Amino acid sequence: MWEEEIGGTGKKEERSGETEGTPEKTSVSDYRAESGRTGHTDARDERQYSAWESRYQRQPSPEPDNRTPWEEAPYRSRRRKRSGPLFLIIAVLLIVGISVFIRYSLVNGTPWQPYGSLPSLPFVTSPSSGQQEETTGQTTVERAPVGDGTTLTISSPPGKALTIQDVYREVSPSVVSIMGTLPDATAYGTGIIMSADGYVITNYHVIEGSSAVTVTLQDDEEFDAKLVGGDAQTDLAVLKIDSENLPAAKFGDSGALVVGDSVYAIGNPLGVELKGTLTDGIISAINRDIYVDGRTMTLLQTNAALNSGNSGGPLINVYGQIIGINTIKMSSYSSTIEGLGFAIPISSAKPIIDELIAKGYISGRSAIGITVSDLSDTAAAFYKNVRGAYVESVDTRSNAYKAGMRQGDIITVVNGVEIQSVDDLYAAKEDCGVGDTISVTVYRNGKYLDFEIVLMDASDLS
User: Fold this and answer.
1) Which of 191, 226, 261, 446 could form a disulfide with 144 if both were Cys (CB 3.0 to 4.6 A apart)?
2) At what angle do helices 43-55 and 28-35 cross, to 10 degrees?
């Protein structure tokens, strides 16, 4: 029931069964009849009817809907038919996206780093691609002859320091650009001419995984380089180009450095477009232990600006002598970090370089024969929260392959030690030598498998 006062008569109409709608009055006469008034229509009636008509505007009643509940209007049916393919496409794209994301997470939970870049710590666990390679088998650059008796010579400093301009004029001709050809990318770095007959020193991570390497001199002359030898553990490599009378660099004693000594860096930050860039700074620390890829490297720390592309370039003293090989920069994705660069002391690099030139490899380095990476939290959840080192690849020549280890395995235990990361794996086998047997447990397809693996000499897999 609802009541509504009509016009100015004071009379109220009661309507039953209606909750909304319009009173059924279509003329002034109808209005007069209901209100009890008779006789002629006067101006008052006209005014009251007009007021009523404006308040109750007659609306046409909608056509009755005789469709059954499960029937839809034709236009709605057509919309559903058009949207079906769209939903299917979205579903397919979503599945593909999830698959790609899981695959990326399996490889590494850390952000991507460009090949050949100066590695950043502590957030990037590998110098090049985020993967940690235990063998050097993927580098297929043509090999150069070894054993010609060439060695790196370290000289005492001359009596007089040079100006920064003189340092640049003397050293920059000995600094070269390095370009490595990778399966799906190009690596850029810096190198140092060690001898007039074409030996060039650089970081191993600059040429790691390359099938060919090009060396470009300061005057833009290019050479196809051959690989004399490389060592991933010390991040050093020696190349050879076919040339004579090259401007060889001079090398100084890094052991004579003290904190506060002025130093300079020359290199190709961010690529060849900025080649020959000079930066300066000081020695910030000596014998700084930096944990890299499961091993400790003892390095020189400097605040001279180093960036991607400086890898393998020289750190120079005030006498124009090379006293370090730039290799690592500290950076963060969540905050700004500047002035934290690191270089391999030339005094500790010399025996490695000499052995690479003599034999092409460093002997006595034990290897499992696998490439591994850390599992991200997302990937660990995908594997029911299994933690360990994810096996990216297994060298088919290795004892690990012969024992049954395969790509996709997750190493969880080595010699009874639980493995949570790649660093744990390196630490677990750190004291094991060539020929030692290690016990390895892996997770594969919901099961745990045990292997006994005899460690090999890394040189046998290079």
Assistant:
1) 226
2) 100
Q: In angstroms, how far is the first alpha carbon of the chain from the final one?
A: 95
Distances in Å between the Cα of 287 and the Cα atoms of 203, 231, 282 are: 19, 20, 15
Planar angle of CA 375, 378, 383, nearest 5 degrees: 70
SS3 223: strand
Q: In the chain, how many domains are there?
A: 4
Residue 345 pLDDT class (50, 70, 90 cuts): very high
Among the residue ranges 122-131, 138-147, 278-287, 384-393, the one predicted with the least confidence is 122-131
Together in a domain, 184 and 325: yes
Tokens 């020193």 -> residue = 201
Query: What CATH number corresponds to the domain at position 299?
Result: 2.40.10.120
Same domain, 150 and 279: yes
Cis-peptide into 122, omega within 30 deg: yes
**Rounded to an integer, what distance in angstroms lies between the CA atom of residue 37 and that of residue 34?**
8
Q: Mind telling me the catalytic residues?
A: 205, 235, 311
